[in-house]
Amino acid sequence: EYRNKVLTNALSASKNFTVTIMIALIQYFTMLFVMTLLASDYRVENLPI
What we know:
Distance between the termini: 53 Å
Structural class: mainly alpha
Largest sheet: none
Order of helices and strands: H
Oligomer: single chain
Shape: rod-shaped
Helix content: over 70%
Strand content: under 5%
Number of domains: 1
Radius of gyration: 19 Å
């Protein structure tokens, strides 16, 4: 019983951790993309893609 509770807590904690990291990465890449757009003055040929 105790072991199952610990496992469940660990799983939910790691799931929350993963979700937090995913959100942070998405925000980071969105910001990077917007900054690149602003820096290139919306000229597509300047994008580093």
